[in-house]
Give the backbone structure.
Amino acid sequence: MILTGDTVRLKVHFKTFDGVSVDPTDIKLKIYETDKTLYEEITITDTDKLSKGVYFYDYLPASELNEFIFEFAGSYNNKPILSRGKVTISFYK
């Protein structure tokens, strides 16, 4: 459970259709409100890399975000590659 004020580790593992880990270029993390309005965009760098194809970002959601969608996106072999997830934040346990 994620509580208001917690830092959330957002993570992605980029893979090919064959399951091979890949490192895309120009990786961005986009935060969307639940109505799909773009809230924030963050550039992901090699300092945010855990291993081949695995990236993370420690995100402190704004207090007005009770729920948000995150999207890691980049380019691999001149084609888009992306992954999305959803986070719900609770005020109490």
Notes: The CA atoms of residues 46 and 55 lie 8 Å apart. The mean pLDDT is 93. The chain has one domain: 2-88. Strands lie at 2-3, 8-13, 25-33, 38-43, 49-51, 54-59, 67-76, 79-90.
